[in-house]
Every structure is written in structure tokens, then in C-alpha cells.
Specification:
Elements (H helix, E strand, L loop, with lengths): L1 H19 L7 E4 L3 E3 L6 E2 L9 E4 L4 E4 L4 E9 L8 E6 L5 E9 L6 E6 L3 E10 L3 E5 L3 E4 L8 E4 L2 E4 L3 E12 L7 E5 L3 E9 L7 E5 L3 E9 L4 E6 L3 E9 L6 E6 L3 E3 L2 E4 L6 E6 L4 E3 L3 E4 L3 E7 L9 E3 L1 E3 L5 E5 L10 E7 L3 E2 L4 E4 L11 E6 L2 E6 L15 H9 L21 H9 L29 H11 L4
Parallel strand pairs: 1-4, 2-5, 4-6, 5-7, 6-8, 7-9, 8-10, 9-11, 10-12, 10-13, 11-14, 12-15, 13-15, 14-16, 15-17, 16-18, 17-19, 18-20, 19-21, 20-22, 21-23, 21-24, 22-25, 23-26, 24-27, 25-28, 26-29, 27-30, 28-31, 29-32, 30-33, 31-34
Antiparallel strand pairs: 1-3, 32-36, 35-36
Helix pairs in contact: 2-4
């Protein structure tokens, strides 16, 4: 009988400790008001606030507010997050708390509920993980969110919803990771218009069948490893801001697809690998306005790499610098010249290297009409200086392909003026099938050009000008010039 009394006493003491002493029993609490202080115990059911081992659920449509001087130690916070529930919840942090420690923070859900966390001041410390599910949004305009867990490998940000960073900082050191497009239905989005994002690894398209997207238009991103298309589809778009990354991989594993578009801004300190694995697809698209200075190498690997560049003039075109470049054997180069029309033998150094370049592009595509044959209009060349491309297409205006833009070509244009269904040899230099003003402009711009043949046009070549005095140069002037000088010379 004595033994049973001791057992009863032990159970009773444990119950007292659970209720009155050191908390050994975790409690699940539910937010029970429309709006109020997160640390006000009366706003929770049962009475709170939740402690370091407790779980706080906010899914009644209400908003919990973090105020100046608050002390927060919460084990788990679920904001608008409940399985199979069309619920919502919100947290607003507009002031700096004294302390804010959250073990696990989940925002939104994958089943209809919506959640949001808005921070415009102070510090929030995440001890384990931050999960933004497909219907969740985190808006940060100031302050800092950082991670302090002892096991850094478990400190992650999982984004299947949206993280909007416009100011302040998100800081994850050591081996802590950001997974964008991961774990649940939906597509993860990280939109950075300002502030600072620091993470050991950023993995975009982290989980199979989950797409991820990172857009940066301001601020800075710092990472040891930036993976675009890690396990599925990932895209990275930069229109401004700065990216400091030790390594960037575009298309990481078999079956993945990565796309990096650099429209403006700066990237430095990076070893850049495109289509790393066999069966992967990687696209690197760089605007002529971007500043790409790689501290390491650029390598086009075993999958299906694609390099897209653009040109505006002989002086204004895409160029990046790297220690070395390896084009491999599978890469495709796509050259977008816009309205710019290079002339034959123009050369462009598109990758400048300190230690040279090797390999060759498997194919070169372009929006340039090549002229009298269907071969690629550009040919590539590698050297100690880097990667160059040379325009090998016919010069605009050279309808007969004799490396000269002269009266013969002008005669072809006059004979086919305003006709449709035309080809290059008919003086359709822009490839639209119609010989008209654009073609006349192209011919005029290159009038008198001679190529490698060294053919001299001589002083007999007339000036293209307004002959009839009507104030412009048009087909009437062309006909007058042809009548005076003859259609053939």
C-alpha cells in the first residue's frame, strides 16, 4: 500500500510542476481576439502568452501586435496555418521588442488559409525554422530577422509563398539555407527591392515539381552558393542591386531547369556554372547594361546550356569578365541585336578572361538576317583574351554578296521597291519580305562599304542625298540617281 502512495505523490508533484512550477508540459494556445498585444495573456485561450515550449495558433482572422519593449519567447507560432482549414491570421511588428525569440514560425498554409507577418522595426530571432507556405506572406521593410539555432543545419527558410524584402536584413550564417519553391504546393517567390539578404545557400526550385523565383531590383544578396533550378525549375531575375556569391549554378541536377536573367545591376565574386548535370537545362541571359565581373570561372557543362546576349552597337554589347571560360561542347549562343545591324567582319569580345578560354559553341542563333546563305551569321573564337564572336553574315545593303555596297545593290532595291515576297538578293535586308523604307535605310547606312576584298569604290560612287529637292531622301531620289549613273557599274 505504501508503494502506491509514493506513486500517487510523484504523479501529483509532476502535475503541480506542470501547472505552477517549471513548465515541463507544452501548451497549445489559440489567439482569441481581433487585434491586440501578442504578450497579453488575456488575448489567448487558455490564458497565455505562449512560452518557449508552447505553441501559439493565430487563425481566427485576428492580428497579434509586437510592441516596443516586449519580451517574447515562443516555441512555435502558426500564423494562418491549420491543416484543412480556410483560416487566416496576422502578426505585425512595428516597433522594437526587448527580446523576440521564436523557435518555429509558420505563415499561411497549403489548404486555403492565409497568413502574414509584417516587420518594419526591431529584431526577430528565429531559433530553428521559418516556413512561408503557399498562402503566406512575409513583408519586411526594416529591422532584422536572423537565426540563432545551435544546429545550424536545421536553420532554414522554406518559401512556398512570398517573402518581400524592401529594407532591413535577413541574416543566416554558417550552413543555414533558404529554400525557395519547396515542400508544398505553390510557387515560392522572393522579391527583393532593398535591404540585405545573407545566407550560406540559396536554393531556388528546391523540391521536385516546385518552382521557385527570386527577383532582385535593389539591395544586396550575399551567398556562398546560389542554385537556380536546384531540384526542379528555378529562375533568378536581376534588374538592379548587387549579388555577391562564391558560386552560382544554373540547372543543378538531371531534369532541372534554371534561368538567370541579368538585366542590370552588379554580380561579382562568382564561379558560374551553367547546366551542371547531364539532362539539366541552364540559361544565362545577360543584358548589355549589366556589370558582370566574375572573380572565378564561367563553365558551360554537360547538360543543355544556353548563353543569351544582346548588342546595340559596335561599342555597346554584352560583356562579362572572368578568370577563365570553358564553353564545353553543348552550349548554344543566342545573339539579340535588336535594331543594330553589324557589318561583315565586325568582332565582339563577349567574355574577357585573365587566363584564357577553351571550347566552342555548338550552335549560334541570332535575329540577324544572314543574307545569301543559311549558315550562322556569327562564328566564335577563343583565345587568351577570352571569347569573341565575329559577324560573318552579309553586310546590310550588299544584295549581291560581293563585299561591296554600291550601285548594283541600289539598282536591285529600286527595281523591287514596295514589292512583297522578296529575299536578300532582292534587297530585302531586314527579312520581312517587303522592300521598303527600312531596307533603304540599311543600304544608306552602309553605302560605300567594302569588305576584305579591298575593292575600291572610287570617286564615281554618287552621294545618296535629296536630289529632287523635296526635303527628304526617298525612292524618287534613288531613281534619279540610277538614271544619271546607270543601274550597273
Amino acid at each position: 500500500m505504501r508503494d502506491f502512495r509514493w506513486m500517487f505523490l510523484i504523479v501529483a508533484v509532476a502535475g503541480v510542476l506542470c501547472v505552477f512550477g517549471t513548465p515541463v508540459c507544452a501548451v497549445i494556445m489559440t489567439w482569441d481576439t481581433s487585434s491586440g498585444s501578442l504578450i497579453n495573456g488575456n488575448n489567448w485561450d487558455p490564458t497565455g502568452p505562449p512560452g518557449s515550449r508552447d505553441t501559439g495558433n493565430i487563425f481566427n482572422g485576428g492580428t497579434a501586435v509586437i510592441n516596443s519593449g516586449d519580451t517574447i519567447h515562443v516555441g512555435t507560432l502558426n500564423v494562418g496555418c491549420r491543416p484543412n482549414g480556410n483560416v487566416s491570421g496576422h502578426i505585425t511588428q512595428n516597433a522594437a521588442p526587448w527580446e523576440s525569440f521564436i523557435g518555429f514560425l509558420s505563415i499561411g498554409s497549403g489548404s486555403g488559409g492565409t497568413g502574414s507577418y509584417t516587420q518594419s522595426a526591431g529584431v526577430a530571432t528565429i531559433q530553428q525554422s521559418l516556413s512561408i507556405w503557399s498562402t503566406g506572406t512575409l513583408n519586411q521593410s526594416a529591422g532584422s530577422i536572423h537565426f540563432s539555432g545551435a544546429d545550424s543545419s536545421d536553420c532554414v527558410v522554406t518559401i512556398s509563398g512570398t517573402y518581400n524584402l524592401s529594407g532591413g536584413s535577413l541574416r543566416m550564417f554558417n550552413s543555414r539555407r533558404q529554400k525557395i519553391g519547396s515542400e508544398t504546393s505553390g510557387k515560392g517567390r522572393f522579391n527583393q527591392t532593398g535591404g540585405t539578404n545573407v545566407a550560406a545557400y540559396v536554393k531556388i526550385g528546391r523540391s521536385s515539381n516546385q518552382a521557385g523565383k527570386y527577383e532582385i531590383s535593389g539591395g544586396s544578396l550575399h551567398s556562398s552558393g546560389l542554385y537556380v533550378g536546384y531540384a526542379s525549375t528555378g529562375s533568378f531575375i536581376q534588374t538592379a542591386g548587387t549579388v555577391h556569391a562564391t558560386g552560382m549554378t544554373v540547372g543543378n541536377s538531371n531534369g532541372t531547369k534554371g534561368v538567370v536573367q541579368i538585366l542590370a545591376g552588379q554580380i561579382d565574386g562568382t564561379n558560374l556554372t551553367v547546366a551542371y548535370a547531364t539532362g539539366s537545362t541552364g540559361t544565362l541571359a545577360i543584358s548589355k547594361d549589366a556589370d558582370i565581373a566574375l572573380g572565378g570561372d564561367i563553365t558551360f557543362c554537360y547538360g543543355m546550356p544556353r548563353f543569351e546576349i544582346e548588342m546595340a552597337s559596335l561599342e555597346d554589347f554584352t560583356q562579362l569578365t572572368a578568370d577563365s571560360a570553358d564553353l564545353g561542347a553543348n552550349a548554344t549562343l543566342d545573339v539579340d541585336c535588336g535594331t543594330f545591324r553589324p557589318i561583315r567582319y565586325d568582332e565582339f569580345l563577349i567574355v574577357s578572361t585573365a587566363s584564357g578560354a577553351t571550347g566552342a559553341f555548338a550552335a549560334i542563333d541570332s535575329n540577324i538576317v544572314n543574307g545569301l546563305h543559311d549558315d550562322p551569321p556569327f562564328i566564335d573564337s577563343t583565345s587568351e583574351e577570352g571569347v569573341s564572336i565575329i559577324f560573318d553574315g552579309y553586310t546590310g545593303g550588299d544584295a549581291d554578296g560581293n563585299d561591296a555596297v554600291d550601285l548594283t545593290d541600289l539598282g536591285k532595291l529600286g527595281a523591287n521597291w514596295n514589292k512583297y515576297g522578296m529575299d536578300w538578293e532582292d534587297a530585302d535586308f531586314d527579312g520581312d519580305g517587303h522592300v521598303y523604307l527600312v531596307d533603304l535605310g540599311i543600304l544608306s547606312a552602309n553605302w560605300g562599304w567594302t569588305g576584305s576584298s579591298g575593292k575600291q569604290m572610287g570617286e564615281s560612287l554618287p552621294e545618296l542625298k535629296d536630289v529632287d529637292g523635296d526635303g527628304d531622301f526617298d525612292i524618287d531620289d534613288v531613281n534619279l540617281i540610277l538614271e544619271k549613273y546607270g543601274k550597273d557599274q
